[in-house]
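Subject: Chemotaxis protein structure
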Amino acid sequence: MQLPEELAGSGLGGWLGALAATIIGGGLMLRRWLSRDSVERAGDEARVEVIDMLTTQLAAANARADMFAKERNDAYREVADLREKIARLETQMGYMQAKLERLDANPHP
């Protein structure tokens, strides 16, 4: 059985043409796939950068909150110390007032 003239004449040239078309088509598909992958990688990198930035901001906010909490606790301690001192002074003043009243009530010659 013989092939028609159009198919028989193609021979090696036809195979090379088909091979070139396949390689070019495969290259274009690979380029498209890599381009899509590149976009996905860029999106992933952007997400990572956003997460890193938010993590850094969170750490800074936590540090500020810790600093303010420490300042608040120090202020509470200072107020408590001052109240304690005032209570001692009031007690001491009451004691001195009572002593003064006793001295006024019993004058010495």
